Amino acid sequence: MSKKTTVLLLNLGTPKSPNVSDVRTYLFEFLNDPRVIDIPWLLRKILVNLIIVPFRAKGSSKIYKQVWTKDGSPLMIYGEKVKQLLQKELETNFTVELAMRYQQPSMKSVLDKIQKDMPQKLIILPMYPQYASSSTGSTFQKAMEIIKTWEVIPEVKFVNQFFDHEGYLDTIVENAQKNDLNEFDHFVFSYHGLPIRQINKVHPNRNCLTCNCHKEFKPDTDYYCYRSTCFETSRLLAEKLAIPKEKYTVSFQSRLDKNWLEPFSDKVVEEKAKNGAKKILVFSPAFVADCLETTVEIGIEYREIFEENGGEKLVLVESLNDHPKWIATLKDLVLKA
Ligand SMILES: C=CC1=C(C)c2cc3[nH]c(cc4nc(cc5[nH]c(cc1n2)c(C)c5CCC(=O)O)C(CCC(=O)O)=C4C)c(C)c3C=C
Ligand SMILES: [Fe+2]
Ligand SMILES: [Fe+2]
Fold it and tell me: Which residues bind Fe(2+) (predicted)?
């Protein structure tokens, strides 16, 4: 007999609307997460509530207005689509739910609903291909805080990451191949950045920036090192697309300050243009759906930087969104869990 199973898909979350007050509420919840701004409590309260949020809300709201569609935020729209498509793909003993780590639909409200439905098994699947404490780790912590209070705790499975899943990689490859790859002078794999101190917490006995975990992926020691898995994801994609080593760069975007992972994507794009690259293709493998960081940051801001510095064409590989191969990948991850 197959078990009654609930699949909980998760993503970061997005403001209720792009208006300044909703963006402020979203940033306030997001950045007060101790796994996101991982500094002592009092310092975080001062930094986030008196400096970052007040200074950032207006600018972020402007950017959210650029990404917003008549149906809302793309991250939410694709989340809902993926939930429905995955539900269709799975047997009737599976129920698929969607929640967001911050804002709505909240993890508490969706997990309350799941608790009432009493599944025998719960699969928690944050849609982040590479593990990071601030994304996947935070989502699991929140889920555990809620589930630990339940009278009946069902069998719970966590899907920690899937950067090396063939289906995930092949979906990106297929999207990239919608372009003529011979046309490009250079390829950039741009990942969401992280503070360096967070990366170093993963392997506290050595410095990630001076060790070789980006050159060679060693699962025994580096399985949860975000920097290492980002480089490994890029190597796997480059191999599938036959892109030679010297033709691609791995970089990190969306930094909040200078102590984040380097090289910074905006600087790479600028430098490539200054060094004569005319056409570049940018991948965003850390994001499974179109969002502010892809559509606006890469698609608009980096394109401008590239063109201002002598480049002609920056093309962004579209996100996995509702691609049938991505839905098949999620199905496989669920069935394997
Ligand atoms: C890939 C997964 C993500 C990790 C890891 C991550 C870490 C992280 N992010 C911030 C700060 C911000 N991120 C913002 C937006 C944003 N971040 C992710 C994903 C990861 N973040 C996504 C998918 C999005 C877009 C959401 C959308 O609705 O489109 C923002 C808000 C936008 C802005 O003001 O720039 C902030 C702020 C930190 C500090 C961090 C880890 C330390
Ligand atoms: Fe982020
Ligand atoms: Fe590392």
Answer: 192, 293
